[in-house]
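stage 2 :: seqdesign
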């Protein structure tokens, strides 16, 4: 009855004060603007409520009274029938009157009225018993009705205000809780934004953070294939939570979502009831997508799918948080792209420097680039993580940078070197170390530079370190370095055959080389190395071999 016309809170208000007023012989009810009384939660043994509210007779009088009140700004107390007074308290919701609180005050005249019998009959109560009960209850005298009704009306109004305030507080509390979750999530995300070199880790953290905050089965991010985008995210789907199937199975659908994503805001897909979205049903119900933009273009989408709980509808709080995460991810991508640009430039600079040093001796052209490649491949084979592998590559590029301090006449000298010339060449690891030691970005590759001529058996230089006391980067570079030296033509000898070089490495495992890394090195795929060799040979065709002392 009252669901659509009467503010549901009005019933709560009535319930909260009904019992108190009833003790004073007053019955409280609520009705809508048609005069239809809302079902009361008065206890079934409350005979007075039943007498007053169960009868059609009284309900008709209320309907008639309401019709009059609806037109009045300040509706006033009426006597519905002899001995039954009713004071209306208008219930207002969003500045519109939606019904009335009805303060019903019976007096002793009710007992003596003609209608009393009929009222009791409607309530299926014995009239005589009710008459006794009414007498015993000492009802309000007629002269006091107006005062009591006013008091009861004020109590109803106060309770209404209190309920309104409680509801406002509840809603503020709810908003506060949501804001807290939002701030906490954004904090987590912005904290992880500092890990610029790990875009996948960042996106993982963002998706996991959202999943911990929102009740969705899974949250993910699908990125476009982009040659100029972040290398580690291009074309990828990253998922947190349980999508119910493998990531690879989801990709055909999530890629379509990227195409559907509007550039300026979220989109909620409803596979259960929208035929256009039915194909996305395997992802979950509902599906929220939000574009991830960089430089004003959609580069991917944030996806939340399969809401948990009874209410499967996407809320505005869900949309807001997913949107904020997508925005942060977009900003992160901008930073990551800048970082990758910078990193590419940094590596390019290192490559140029080492290539120019290698070029001092035409026989070592491309040496550093090839050593970097092999050391990196060996680091992967040895199970190093992505970041360490990257650093090994950098260490390989700069390992011989100290040769800049060795006279060209010595580096390029054909034939046997004198003791003094040897000593001069042997200084290049330390010179390299000194050149690079003040560059913060290269600090972790320094051990590789300083110790790449150490030997496993301790007979190397500059410090004669042995075994595992030789830094790992240096042990990796040592293998790559010797392999390249043996595989290319030098001033003093021709390039060795591949099988000869690999045999040499096998033989030297445990003396010159780390006995655990040497077998991994032998198993490497040398096709990229061979490609580089022929590329470098094309740049500078070497002279034919001249025999001499090995370096
Ligand atoms: Fe070297
Ligand atoms: Fe070298």
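stage 2 :: out
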């Amino acid at each position: 009855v009252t669901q659509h016309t009467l503010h549901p809170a009005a019933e709560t208000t009535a319930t909260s004060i009904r019992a108190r007023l009833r003790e004073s012989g007053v019955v409280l009810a609520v009705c809508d603007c048609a005069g239809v009384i809302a079902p009361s939660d008065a206890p079934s043994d409350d005979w007075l409520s039943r007498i007053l509210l169960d009868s059609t007779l009284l309900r008709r009088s209320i309907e008639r009274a309401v019709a009059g009140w609806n037109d009045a700004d300040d509706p006033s107390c009426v006597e519905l029938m002899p001995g039954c007074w009713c004071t209306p308290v208008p219930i207002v919701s969003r500045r519109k009157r939606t019904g009335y609180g009805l303060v019903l005050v019976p007096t002793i005249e009710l007992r003596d009225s003609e209608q009393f019998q009929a009222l009791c009959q409607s309530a299926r109560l014995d009239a005589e018993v009710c008459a006794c009960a009414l007498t015993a209850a000492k009802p309000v005298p007629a002269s006091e009705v107006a005062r009591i009704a006013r008091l009861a009306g004020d109590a109803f109004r106060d309770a209404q205000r209190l309920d309104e305030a409680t509801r406002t507080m509840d809603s503020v509390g709810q908003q506060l809780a949501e804001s807290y979750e939002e701030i906490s999530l954004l904090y987590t995300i912005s904290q992880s934004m500092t890990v610029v070199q790990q875009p996948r880790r960042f996106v993982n953290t963002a998706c996991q953070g959202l999943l911990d905050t929102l009740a969705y089965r899974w949250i993910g991010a699908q990125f476009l294939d982009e040659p100029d985008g972040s290398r580690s995210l291009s074309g990828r789907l990253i998922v947190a939570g349980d999508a119910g199937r493998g990531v690879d199975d989801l990709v055909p659908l999530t890629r379509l979502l990227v195409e559907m994503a509007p550039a300026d805001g979220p989109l909620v897909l409803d596979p259960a009831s929208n035929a256009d979205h039915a194909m996305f049903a395997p992802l979950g119900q509902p599906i929220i997508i939000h574009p991830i933009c960089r430089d004003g273009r959609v580069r991917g989408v944030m996806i939340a799918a399969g809401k948990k709980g009874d209410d499967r509808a996407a809320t505005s709080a869900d949309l807001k948080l997913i949107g904020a995460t997508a925005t942060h991810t977009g900003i992160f991508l901008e930073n990551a792209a800048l970082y990758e640009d910078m990193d590419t430039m940094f590596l390019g600079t290192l490559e140029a420097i080492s290539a120019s040093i290698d070029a001092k001796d035409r026989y070592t052209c491309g040496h550093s680039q090839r050593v970097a490649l092999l050391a990196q491949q060996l680091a992967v084979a040895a199970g190093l993580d992505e970041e360490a592998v990257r650093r090994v590559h950098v260490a390989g590029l700069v390992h011989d940078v100290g040769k800049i301090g060795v006279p060209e006449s010595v580096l390029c000298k054909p034939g046997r070197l004198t003791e003094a010339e040897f000593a001069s060449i042997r200084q290049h690891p330390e010179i390299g170390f000194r050149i690079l030691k003040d560059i913060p970005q290269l600090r972790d590759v320094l051990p590789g530079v300083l110790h790449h001529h150490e030997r496993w058996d301790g007979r190397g230089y500059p410090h004669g370190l042995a075994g595992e006391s030789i830094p790992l980067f240096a042990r990796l570079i040592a293998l790559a370095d010797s392999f390249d030296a043996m595989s290319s033509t030098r001033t003093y000898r021709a390039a060795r055959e591949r099988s000869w070089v690999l045999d040499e490495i096998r033989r030297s495992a445990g003396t010159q080389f780390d006995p655990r890394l040497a077998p991994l090195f032998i198993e490497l795929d040398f096709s990229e190395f061979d490609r580089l060799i022929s590329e470098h040979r094309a740049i500078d065709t070497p002279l034919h071999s001249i025999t001499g002392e090995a370096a």
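stage 3 :: structure notes
- Strands lie at 27-32, 78-81, 84-93, 96-106, 216-223, 237-241, 267-269, 287-294, 297-307.
- The chain has 20 helices and nine strands.
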